[in-house]
Amino acid sequence: MAERLIVVGADAAGMSAASQARRRRDHRDLEILAFERGTHTSYSACGIPYWIAGLVEERDDLIARTPEQHRERNIDVRIGHTVVGVDLDRRAVTVREPRGGETTHEFDQLMVATGGEPVRPDWPGIDGRGVHGVQTLDDGEAVSASLRSRDAKRAVVIGGGYIGVEMAEALIRQGLEVTLVERAEQPMNTLDPDMGERVGEALKAFEVDVRMGVTVEGIELDGEGWARAVTTDAGEFPADVVVLGLGTQPGVTLAEEAGLPIGPSGGIVTDRRMRVPGHDGIWAAGDCVEVVHRVTGRPVAIPLGTHANKQGRVAGINLGGGYATFPGVLGTAVTKVCDLEIARTGLREAEAEEAGFAVVSAVIESHTVAGYYPGADTVTVKLVAERGTGRLLGGQIVGGNGAAKRIDVVAVALWNHMTVDEMTGLDLGYAPPFSPVWDPVLVAARAASDAVHG
Amino acid sequence: MAERLIVVGADAAGMSAASQARRRRDHRDLEILAFERGTHTSYSACGIPYWIAGLVEERDDLIARTPEQHRERNIDVRIGHTVVGVDLDRRAVTVREPRGGETTHEFDQLMVATGGEPVRPDWPGIDGRGVHGVQTLDDGEAVSASLRSRDAKRAVVIGGGYIGVEMAEALIRQGLEVTLVERAEQPMNTLDPDMGERVGEALKAFEVDVRMGVTVEGIELDGEGWARAVTTDAGEFPADVVVLGLGTQPGVTLAEEAGLPIGPSGGIVTDRRMRVPGHDGIWAAGDCVEVVHRVTGRPVAIPLGTHANKQGRVAGINLGGGYATFPGVLGTAVTKVCDLEIARTGLREAEAEEAGFAVVSAVIESHTVAGYYPGADTVTVKLVAERGTGRLLGGQIVGGNGAAKRIDVVAVALWNHMTVDEMTGLDLGYAPPFSPVWDPVLVAARAASDAVHG
């Protein structure tokens, strides 16, 4: 008789796992049943701001594979189905059906891919109409509907992280007046302050009203329950639409209630094969888990689509009888805001110090391509290294076209425990349309090496 | 009394060395005298095709530092001075002065940076007017002068390597009819044939008349000694201008005559500090030397500006009393031909096999950015790995905007002896404007890993 795999959450991690397992085991050997509380599967959540901005035409362009397409491959996806309980002893999940009522489904293998839960402070008015997170495609549709139905003129984006700055840009592109409020002194707190400052400048140049160091107190609603303004310790900001970009935390309620181990970072604990230790046949992957940070060696929960896809694939290979391991993360992330490319990997200064490293840093300015070549733009590269040893600990890049993906060089160097000294010798590609003869990353490595040697 | 450093050849390697030495030792401690047979110093030879194409406006844009600028920093550069002999016993060089006559100059330290010599077959007519190599800025000026003075309509480019394909594009951009003739069956023999074929297609789409498998027999000249046609075993190709893109070999005549050691690849032998072994105070760097290939462990002479700059810097740091080593090369190279980006690093299949590796390869097609994002273009990535171990041996990339510099990820992985298995876990940057969620390099690593495991 076939084993049954139940997948909870049918997005990046869950469906990568299901697909890999299916590639290796056919439906006579492994039945796969996936429950999704939303209405879409396997879509690019990272693409939502670009769709709202109008850069991506159709919502469906963001969907890599629909429930129907999964079903054609013998993966039984049920949308609108919320898993409300997991009984590890009975090896069964309880599911709230879309039309009400609950059903129970037994499993042999369970893949927990419950994703991240958006941070939603307990502010008055946060549940008002026109107040939206942007985690799921359903959220994106809700934002889009609010914009249309209200003929919205003014938006307030709360939070200056990736989603916040991307949504600020998207709403400007849709012709709204946009205010970005953030508690910290600069946007993008995944960067060091000196680099984050440049993001703030780019947002201002794009006519986003950037308000840093501002604490939100609540959202004022009108008589019909629609958002009217965001109230803060720096006054009131009118808003027809409010976007919450306050980040996410691992979505572990279900796992926690079932008794699965939750680690210090708040994510479900997994081993290198994405198994939940101590629970045979239970797997977890994606924004709901914690994994090892390769620089600190500590567990972290970093919600990124790349990690979710890789972890899901690893789990699926193992579920399918193969062997694969997830080697940990560096937290590499890139984005583009108002023509400014932004990238980071590893530890920023404060993170490195908090992890016990003594650090030296170097910041250099260079060009994205040969200075004399048409379209040459500036790029700023910062490298953080360990004092004494010169071990690379992290890097950050902001700049024009061609800046961001240079972080991958820093990421692979970091992955391999290189020192900034060693990096100066790296044999990178050069031609005038692509780079100065010394790639900006190498210029930064030279500067960091000089800094290490005092 | 100050030591005297004589530099032979005042371009990338020579002047990088001189500049680094000067940074560390002032003119009272180290006199620096540089002889250059051409008329320019410290320029971007790689930029010449783009200047001829009209993409770079001014010739002087290619010059990073003029002789005057070097002299202001107490580096005595003498252009038009050809070093014709080195006497290692007397520790002196003999120099042919620009107005005739020879002078002798003693040195304490000697930096040999004589660059590469273009390959010039002994064809009838090769010394004709309108027949040009494109190694130096003086060569570039000569091409430019020929184009103007002849009102040239038709060009033949001989050789389908970097310079050949870049010059073919440049001349098309200048409105000429261009024929590219190449002995091999496809252009870019630094790539495997399956990848090189795509370069040929791009050239054809750009209206270059590409003639592969053609052996040149000579260049026919008219009554005034100007090029009229290139004669080949496949007939005659009319040409007002002929460009030679046949590559270079290490320029070691001077070194060889002086008795310096020449290695199996034809370059001057150096140690990791760029010293010539057995010859105290003699240094060499740039296209005239051989260095270790990090994958094969064998000596190679690969003429690339990136290597020359790095080697010159290493020599200069050591000359200045510091400590630096040159760690070897991977042969990473990128270029752009007719909107097709081209990149390679490490060993191609034939090179790997010749070096004794049994190989498996994987070729994948993906997108430069998320498939749904505006401007998404195709990219083809090939990885070559060792059979059994899965050790990465090399990579090649061709594709649209954003393709080429992805080779740097492959280069850093190669530098660190990664296997293609390990590469599948790399934490690279992802956002829709920059990459699919699985970067094309990771897709290739997955395919290569599958190929390794059969």
TrEMBL record, chains A, B:
Keyword annotations from UniProtKB, A to Z: FAD, Flavoprotein, Oxidoreductase, Redox-active center
Domain of life: Bacteria
FAD/NAD(P)-binding domain mapped to chain residues: 4-299
GO MF annotations, alphabetized: oxidoreductase activity
Ranges where the Pyridine nucleotide-disulphide oxidoreductase dimerisation domain occurs: 334-437
Cofactors required: FAD
Any Pfam family the entry gives: Pyr_redox_2
InterPro entries per UniProt: FAD-bd_OxRdtase, FAD/NAD-bd_sf, FAD/NAD-binding_dom, FAD/NAD-linked_Rdtase_dimer_sf, Pyr_nucl-diS_OxRdtase_dimer
Similarity annotation: Belongs to the class-III pyridine nucleotide-disulfide oxidoreductase family.
Official protein name in the record: NADPH-dependent 2,4-dienoyl-CoA reductase, sulfur reductase
Native source species: Cryptosporangium aurantiacum
